[in-house]
């Protein structure tokens, strides 16, 4: 915003000529609101002008010439003394009407056919630029992050946004209009000298106003039609990113569980959540937004090199912030529209779990009764309590969610392989914590409520145990069977054994711990099934002959199946 005023400032210039005082008359008819600097002797100026006589006739104009006047004020000046005096004290963007008497112009001689003798001249001047050879690059910090761990140094590569304008406020270029940062090395001559100096010491996220005098910018050459010669440049710069080609992955451990039972190594398969941002905090990707962990092998090149390296040595439940320079990320090409070229990436990682394809079930005994003579094994019927969770503590399911604890026969494929294994060898009332890798759990497909490739943690307690029989059997002898068998079975010695007598005989063997029925099936059902297999002619009774099977014509071998 500017104000317009008509201020007639009378500069009294003493001129000894016939005893008369002569004046340069200055009319400051437009003064900008903000004026950080005024023209002084020794300064260089660049301005547009129109030169007229008092009657308004034009004799000269920089606008007609197509370029402004550039010169040094008061030092071997190229202009008439009155104009040299008239621009002193001007501000950039100020407009002045300077009336110059002839003795401070071209005097009694005039200037050829253009300026007659004793002519009073009037100049309408617009100051465009102002600098001094002693000027330095000016830096004004507009915003700076409180936590600045690193600043720009020579040889760093930077990515920044900018608006470039002239002192009069005209915008000549902007990275924002191109929707792309300006990317360059610092200190290698690829930037303006003034910009090189202005970027040094900046933090990512910092915003600076960098004012560069012409001799540290484009000097007398300018830049095409955008930047005129001898132009002071103002850059409004926001540093987006920075790194050095010598940078390695930076890992900041934010939280680590205690104890850390195991650290990840190459070849492990890992599941983790992440948030991905650029150095200025701009978000670009997140596993949370997909409600799914990122799953991969470590050290096998399936992820960018920096993350592959940063995942080495993590613990389950650990939080890490990982800063990955572009040469260990997506490099100079970036990745589509998601990752710009030469971008430093920051990942906040939360390790959910990891395992190795060679892992077995890990068993930790929490409590074991002192009297532990009978332990669970394949084919045993057990009742047990359990809580199942992921390694990060996420609850999945529990036997407490059901009216009563489950019963299952071990070794029959009724459970996931790792749980079946972890339940074997337990005493009644023993408690265990078992860790089951996914290839012994729900694998790559997962299950209802269970993510794919998830390591499972089970808390187990064995409540009941009934020893079983081998697969395919309904009954086994724990001691030597009676010999001969049929007379022992024929309890009333009538040479025939009906179902009731058969059932009484088998139940007696079980009661005396001489034999064992299949624990997973109703005993009456088991007895009926056993009886029907021995009652070969299905007449409702077993005879001695039916306990014998003819294997060949030469030999009769007694075979009683379970009996």
TrEMBL record:
Its EC number is 5.2.1.8. Keywords: Calcium, Endoplasmic reticulum, Glycoprotein, Isomerase, Metal-binding, Repeat, Rotamase, Signal. GO terms for cellular component: endoplasmic reticulum. Residues 522-557 form the EF-hand domain. It is found in: Endoplasmic reticulum. It comes from the Eukaryota. InterPro entries: EF-hand-dom_pair, EF_Hand_1_Ca_BS, EF_hand_dom, FKBP-like_isomerase, PPIase_dom_sf, PPIase_FKBP_dom. Coiled coil: none annotated. The keyword Isomerase applies. PROSITE patterns: EF_HAND_1 (PS00018), EF_HAND_2 (PS50222), FKBP_PPIASE (PS50059). Its main location: endoplasmic reticulum. Residues 42-131, 155-243, 267-355, 379-466 form the PPIase FKBP-type domain. GO terms for molecular function: calcium ion binding; peptidyl-prolyl cis-trans isomerase activity. It catalyses: [protein]-peptidylproline (omega=180) = [protein]-peptidylproline (omega=0). Residues 1-19 form the signal peptide. The keyword Glycoprotein applies. PPIases accelerate the folding of proteins during protein synthesis. PANTHER family: PEPTIDYL-PROLYL CIS-TRANS ISOMERASE FKBP10 (PTHR46046:SF3), PEPTIDYLPROLYL ISOMERASE (PTHR46046). This is peptidylprolyl isomerase. It comes from Sinocyclocheilus anshuiensis.
